[in-house]
Amino acid sequence: MPMTVVPGRFTPAILSIGSRLPSFKYAARRVAVFVPRSAASISVETNSSVDSVVEKEKDILACPICYNSLALISQPNGLVGSAGTQLQCNTCKGSYSGNETHLDLAVASGSNQYTEPMPLSTELFRTPLVSFLYERGWRQNFIWGGFPGPEKEFEMAREYLKPVLGGNIIDASCGSGMFSRLFAKSELFSRVIALDYSENMLKQCYEFLNQEENLTNKENVVLVRADIARLPFLSGSVDAVHAGAALHCWPSPSSAVAEISRVLRPGGVFVATTFIYDGPFSFIPFLKNLRQELMRYSGSHIFLSERELEDLCKAGGLVGFTRVRNGLFIMLSATKPSR
């Protein structure tokens, strides 16, 4: 997935078109820019004049409506990655835009009047307060449910991800980017895509990335807003998908896992963590009925058995289900079948 990089301050951005790009007068900042297959990526120095260096690489972004490629239609001020950059699908003509913090590839992002509220569990994490608190106390409380902590969870996930090291990875429902930063700092992946539906979570992710003094490859991290059930990536273009403490928050886990299976290449790996309420919880009367009511009003999902999660992966087209347990915590992994 080619990118244009202007070293300095980290800023995810948009793509540039053409086999060669002209020089720019540009302030010192860092911009990550997607380029379609026919285009090139450039590396730039922090001087007033910018020279382009061509490096072709497979593209990955796609229209979330029809899954076809996107084209650049507007680049305000002549600046690569400036706010207001517009993308359009070559096929269905859907329009998308980028801003200072992320590329917005949600289905309805180009609409002016239409709004679509999501379930309560999704809307909660779109609020500025919860987005601010998530990495400042909220996530830390998961230790009471058996979550071993981000660093240990990262080490566990890395074991599952060994077959795809060196490829690209989507950190789905990335929140404030806790694991996105760990993946980037590990330098085990060629590209880290921090993806979330919450604009405010992506703003927090952007700020935390800018504060990382020891992260030398920030240009390899790209922030994207998208629906987990409508991923804006080409089929078979992704090596790995990670979803930390997210499965239970998705309005339709089956739709999400099916989408993850679509974008994974053959042999690609899916790793996720969530809560599971089995064991003594199975003796709670009417728990399944209570679960249905909770899902109806909040959009959250309660998993009651490991078999349920295995069936979820299988129904989505993934195989080789395996898991690690610690109390309510479960880390699972499954892979896209090889051809």
UniProtKB/TrEMBL annotation:
<dbReference type="GO" id="GO:0008757">
    <property type="term" value="F:S-adenosylmethionine-dependent methyltransferase activity"/>
</dbReference>
<feature type="domain" description="Methyltransferase type 11">
    <location>
        <begin position="171"/>
        <end position="271"/>
    </location>
</feature>
<comment type="similarity">
    <text>Belongs to the methyltransferase superfamily.</text>
</comment>
<keyword id="KW-0489">Methyltransferase</keyword>
<keyword id="KW-0809">Transit peptide</keyword>
<dbReference type="InterPro" id="IPR029063">
    <property type="entry name" value="SAM-dependent_MTases_sf"/>
</dbReference>
<dbReference type="GO" id="GO:0010287">
    <property type="term" value="C:plastoglobule"/>
</dbReference>
<dbReference type="Pfam" id="PF08241">
    <property type="entry name" value="Methyltransf_11"/>
</dbReference>
<keyword id="KW-0934">Plastid</keyword>
<dbReference type="InterPro" id="IPR013216">
    <property type="entry name" value="Methyltransf_11"/>
</dbReference>
<dbReference type="GO" id="GO:0032259">
    <property type="term" value="P:methylation"/>
</dbReference>
<keyword id="KW-0150">Chloroplast</keyword>
<protein>
    <submittedName>
        <fullName>(rape) hypothetical protein</fullName>
    </submittedName>
</protein>
<keyword id="KW-0808">Transferase</keyword>
